[in-house]
User: What shape does this take?
Amino acid sequence: MSNTQPPNLYHEDRQDRLIRELVHDPYHSKKKMTEPTQCPDCQAIYHEGRWRWGAAPADAERELCPACQRVRDHCPAGFLTLSGEFLAGHKDEILHLIRHVEQREKAEHALRRLMAFEEQADGSVLATFTDPQLARAAGEAVYRAYRGDLDFTYQENEYLLRVAWRR
Ligand SMILES: [Zn+2]
Assistant: This one.
C-alpha cells in the first residue's frame, strides 16, 4: 500500500508530520549508544542523542553511522526520479542543484546524504538518498526552480519516500 500526496509547498508542516509518522528507521540503533561514538567512514560523531559533525576525542567508540551503513548496503531511504524532455536538455544544471541541496542539508543534518545518480535506459535519472527528508527537499528544490510535476509516494510501514519529478 502506498498513498500519493500532491505537492504542496505551502504546507510543509503537514509533510513533516507525514514523514514523522513513518515507522522507526531500522538503521537507527535501538540500543543505547555510547557517547561519543565516531563513524570510521565519514567521521560523524554521535553525541547528545544524534549524529553530527565535529571533532571527537581520541577515545571515542567507533561504529558506522546509519547513513554510511545504508551506503554500504545500497539501501536508500529516499528516491527522486527525474524525467521528461526538459530534463534531457537541462540535466547538468538540475543535478548540480540537487548536489547543492545535499551540501546545504548535510551541513545541518549529518545523516542526509546523496548516494548516487543512476542514469536509466529511458533517459530518466534516479537519485538515491540516505534520508527521506533529503529526497523531499531535493524534489521541492527542483520544482521551485523549474516547475513541472512533482509527486510524493510514502510507503506505509517502511522508512521510505519516493519522489517523482517530471517536465
Ligand atoms: Zn558515517
